Amino acid sequence: MPIQTTPKIWMNGELVDWDRAQVHVLTHTLHYGTGVFEGIRAYATPDGPAVFRLTDHIKRLFDSAHIMGMEIAYTVDELIAATKATVVSTGLDACYIRPLVYYGYGEMGLNTLPCTTDVAIACWPWAPFLGADSVNKGVRMKISSWTRHDHNTMPPASKTVGNYVNSSLAKVEALRAGYDEAIMLAPNGLVAECTGENIFAVRKGIIITPPISAGALEGITQNSVMTIARDLGMDVRVDNLARSDLYIAEEMFVCGTAAEISSVNSVDDRAIPFPGPITKAIAEVYIDAANGRVDRYKDWNELAS
Ligand SMILES: Cc1ncc(COP(=O)(O)O)c(C=O)c1O
User: For the chain, which has fewer Cβ within 10 Å, the N-terminal or C-terminal residue?
Assistant: First the structure.
């Protein structure tokens, strides 16, 4: 599905026409994958378009850059304001938002120290990644033959552009084999995450999600899910999961900004009961919260204007 265009993209301090948001072919990040990015969503709330946990996403963008040793020439507050202005410029009630920090045109070679950083923020309408109503339909998962990065190879805690070569290899492999999504194992064989989502599996009534040390990104949806689950009185823990924990899970779901929450109906063709009651209860509150319908989580709805 081609990207649906919107009127403007924010580039280095100004909103430029969509078609003019261009870079030179010798842009550094295009060659070496050295940039960092975020994936955020704005939802239509009763008070107007609101960006879900925008401050947390922009802070994670700065953390990603910090891990990479990249300097961003703007403050957190400036990029929050820029994101809101970009959303407003689209005239959309709800959209996906992609901030990208990249080393621009001017220097070449692997030494990034002399490079200047550029920032772009684009928004466009984008349906949930793993299909509409994936809570009820469930998705088919395959353990990837590709291993998640070791912490000393490519830091998985940073949303670095080049990290996603690994995710893309796994995603395409899974799709070609007839599955919906891939599960990545860490170099030590423990479950890390999916190509763009965190994993939750229920074992003996306890909801378990793998830690950052297993190679998972510190997901903002994962954090929202844990908050909602605890507020619903559920037992949720950050802990390691083995591949076999997934095969015999009472229920399993994956979550991320782009995918929202999807039930898993099988892993490597081992059926998993779906949609599970825990998954359904959490997903219902999450969607209500994102759309500004839950007073308790109003802080998560950062109004665009
Ligand atoms: C590799 C990876 N894991 C997990 C996630 C989920 O993170 P979040 O819920 O913050 O979108 C993402 C999406 O950003 C991701 O790219």
Answer: N
